[in-house]
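Example 3.2
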Amino acid sequence: MRILTEYAQTSIEVKKSRFLAEAFVITSQAEARALLREQKAKYQDATHVVHAFICGLNAEVSGCSDDGEPSGTAGRPVLEVLKGRNCTNIMLTVTRWFGGTLLGTGGLVKAYGDAAKAVLELCKTEEYIPKAQFKFDAPYPLYEQIKLILKQHSAEVSSEDFAENIHIEGIIPETDKEKLKAHITDFSNGKILLV
């Protein structure tokens, strides 16, 4: 399973209708709904803002909407393209500005599907690895060694607060958290407790 690493966008034109396809990183259905509201507010001049999303560890949550296009001609083709890419935690929106020529149901399916494929070609993805958060307090004399231990375990530090002790927070691949916890506990003779 792969996940999107950054936002991407492109547009195509079909018989004077413009289709703006955008790919976003999401982690939940609620995020998808909020993002869709933002997109509709941003593109109030558009004829349709169609969307499809997939999220969850095993891509178990998905949804789509035709946003007023004939049933099954917009959201479903975008979702099917998305499913074919083995991705999760991603949302595509395809915003259409009507160009004056009706495309018919087959033309709509092709246009929305092509727009989805075009943006996915530009997307940068990586293998999805479940992450866990961690935090702990470390005394100053152990700081440099702790940094090396974190690096050995592929831990990403998100914040360091230098107070009486150094409060460190970050994320690590879920499968490595217990190893990191044991390593830091052993190294500090039980003085540092990672949670």
